[in-house]
Amino acid sequence: MAFITLTTDFGTKDHFVGAVKGAIYSELKDAKIIDITHQISPFNITETAYILKNSYKSFPEGSIHIVGVDSELSNENKHIALLLDNHYFICPDNGLISMIASEINPTKIVEITIHNRVESSFPVLDVFVQVACFIAKGGSLSVIGKEIKEFQKLIEIQPKVNQTQTKIIGNVIYIDNYGNVISNISKKQFQKIGKGRSFKIVAHRHFFTKIYSKYNEIVNCQNIGEQNLYDGEKLAIFNSAGFLEIAIYRSSLGTVGGASSLLGLKYRDVISVEFKSLETKKETDVFSAIP
Amino acid sequence: MAFITLTTDFGTKDHFVGAVKGAIYSELKDAKIIDITHQISPFNITETAYILKNSYKSFPEGSIHIVGVDSELSNENKHIALLLDNHYFICPDNGLISMIASEINPTKIVEITIHNRVESSFPVLDVFVQVACFIAKGGSLSVIGKEIKEFQKLIEIQPKVNQTQTKIIGNVIYIDNYGNVISNISKKQFQKIGKGRSFKIVAHRHFFTKIYSKYNEIVNCQNIGEQNLYDGEKLAIFNSAGFLEIAIYRSSLGTVGGASSLLGLKYRDVISVEFKSLETKKETDVFSAIP
Amino acid sequence: MAFITLTTDFGTKDHFVGAVKGAIYSELKDAKIIDITHQISPFNITETAYILKNSYKSFPEGSIHIVGVDSELSNENKHIALLLDNHYFICPDNGLISMIASEINPTKIVEITIHNRVESSFPVLDVFVQVACFIAKGGSLSVIGKEIKEFQKLIEIQPKVNQTQTKIIGNVIYIDNYGNVISNISKKQFQKIGKGRSFKIVAHRHFFTKIYSKYNEIVNCQNIGEQNLYDGEKLAIFNSAGFLEIAIYRSSLGTVGGASSLLGLKYRDVISVEFKSLETKKETDVFSAIP
């Protein structure tokens, strides 16, 4: 049985998603088609990379992930199919795979060439579905296209570290359903650079000296019923995807607002971590121990 | 074959829903996973209860319903699994089950204890999925946790009745996709208290003395083509879920507006029903017979 | 295995979709239920027709398409089931089928009569699901209702052509997820009337003399990296559904805006095509060759 996931910026109103699913079922009656999301902000590759990285691993090995974001074919924007971490990805070569591939090298990448005669403004339907069904039936990547070794890199996804290793300068790469603001700074990188030193996180005019591992760790109450006192408090957390996140406890974008609206943090804004330098002469800033 | 439904406030953009589905399929290749909704207003338990109550019964007996709303574990917010009306529910013990359990007693409730060592900010993925797959494979609730007899009650869900049984004071518990305003006053309670008496419904500055059973009963036209004359008319109806609803005929929140916007009714606003008192001396108010 | 699709204006927050799916699975454990969309603007029949026309064909023959838009039963709004192009449709007889049936005649249409005793404000759940499951199990349309020959026509869906065949006057029938503005003028009709003549498309205050077949045909760059210069350019295209569309290159309604917001084009606005008349004496307007 084939598991085929869809990650697109099609939205859920238009006919695009229905047409794609129908085409897959017409080829593969038994396929399991799973929507990862169709709500990617149009053409936003960073969002796509973040969402895909945090969801693909849950699926059974051998799953096929179709990505339909900014996928119109051009000389600058080839179509590729690849095997990485025992999962198949079919996507444009526009950098979105680099967030996943930054940790795990692809086993094989091919540039899709089966569609050289297809002029299409809807390549997910006209090309990607064919490729997915071909792979699902046991077809080899080599038949789909010619092997390539390089793929586009998405530079903005990597945070910068200063020379003295006292600062990680990251950016907001995603704002989630609760308005939580997610940076590109991973727990792994934080620990590698920080080496247990105390630190200060700076996000706009806001400072954090503690990073939680659960949202409700902020609640430090003896008496049942006091939980609500903490609603609306800001906090820094390593989220379930392993990234540094600025959150508002029990926030809701639609009503009280989330970290993004309440703290004025937008996509691409800088979030940085300053570590206590190893030779500390004066230290007037507030620094705290890692929890 | 296992039917597993998802009711969450995750939204459909983030990776959360995809990750949860992938994890279920990795355990249970044949599972049927059905989205009830992921659009619950963040942390809104009343909405969750209303939606779950009105959808779970349609599913085959033995279905497993995962509820991911306000589900982070704390001393105040335990995780429970229960069998009720031949359906399984896996959810936080935050009151949401009380709307369903107000009519049908749970057969068995356990407090989930298999995760005592899991520190997780994403318990639906890390805990609820495991529990659901365990139940789907025929596992017993007793293995998952220790049996408990009590669960949290959600008080605001129950309307009040005055001492002389002439008034039901309810609240808006839900606003639907059309902007229709749904109260917590059920047809059952209305009939039990009303005993066939004439009545007046009061919602903000608006009055209703008739309750319809279909929206287009308001259209009383002889000539085909006059239906549109009634677009935008306000009406009271017992909706398909059996609750008293204030609606605008053929409304659309996005364009002309719905009852919520046009009549100024918000979540938690009071909607009351006044019945004619049994000993009527003076009666100056307008009362009508129940249809 | 039965493929059953859903196209509704229910939205994805309320319990309606979940209830319908549960009811189908309770009857047909093996059904494949596919959401085409639940985001139709409430009661909008033109949108429904456009989306359905562009998605149903992808599905395997014999698929059953449930349409829940403006489906409350009345004397003016019968329920019908039909076989058309080897697909089954279950829907209200409110004109939505006429966009599909304008090109292909239905094989058989019946007026559903099995529900004559059902008073329901939720006919999709109470009636359409029953009909769909009956058909999926091999039941005959004749058992569901009495055969009829006529169905409601939706007039606004057809563009007008002037007597001298120099002008097609169409309308905006749909605005998609990217803000692209889609007219009811099909490529087929354009070619039939235009007969290769040069033309001018008029949409509000905007003119187009070229129609692209891919969005990025507008990019005419030698150097890699110049693609972004074209972001925000307006263009006319025959979209993947075969209709004339006014688009903004790489637009996004949520951020920079789409053709609808940037060019001020709304649902039902006029979009027309003027062809060079065959006997050309004076021709001061700008006309271009069809690409």
Considering the chains and any ligands shown, give keywords for the structure:
homotrimer; nine-stranded mixed beta sheet; alpha+beta; globular; about 290 residues; seven-stranded mixed beta sheet
Any overview of this molecule?
Three copies of one chain form a homotrimer. Chain A is an alpha+beta fold. Chain A is 19% helix and 28% strand. The first copy, chain A, contains seven helices and 16 strands. In chain A, the strands form two sheets. In chain A, strands 8, 9, 10, 11, 12, 13, 14, 15 and 16 form a nine-stranded mixed β-sheet that branches. In chain A, strands 2-1-3-5-4-6-7 form a seven-stranded mixed β-sheet, sandwiched between helices. In chain A, α1 packs parallel to α4. The first copy, chain A, is globular and about 55 Å long. Chain A binds chain B through residues 1, 3, 5, 7, 12, 32, 34-40, 50-60, 63, 176-178, 213-216, 219, 224-225, 227, 237, 239-241, 250-255, and chain B through 9-23, 25-26, 29, 41-43, 70, 72-77, 119-122, 125-126.
DSSP helix count of chain A? 7
End-to-end separation of chain A in angstroms reads: 44 Å
Radius of gyration of chain A: 22 Å
Most extensive chain interface and residues per partner: A-B, 46 and 34 residues
| Proportion of residues in β-strands of chain A | 25-35%
**Coarse shape of chain A:** globular
- This entry's quaternary arrangement is homotrimer
What's the topology here?
3 copies of one chain form a homotrimer.
Chain A: E1 3-8, H1 16-27, E2 32-37, H2 45-53, E3 64-68, E4 79-84, E5 87-92, H3 98-101, E6 108-112, H4 123-136, H5 141-144, E7 145-148, E8 160-161, E9 167-175, E10 181-186, H6 187-194, E11 199-203, E12 206-208, E13 211-212, E14 234-238, E15 243-248, H7 259-262, E16 270-275
Parallel strand pairs in A: 1-2, 1-3, 3-5, 13-14
Antiparallel strand pairs in A: 4-5, 4-6, 6-7, 8-9, 9-10, 9-16, 10-15, 11-12, 11-16, 14-15
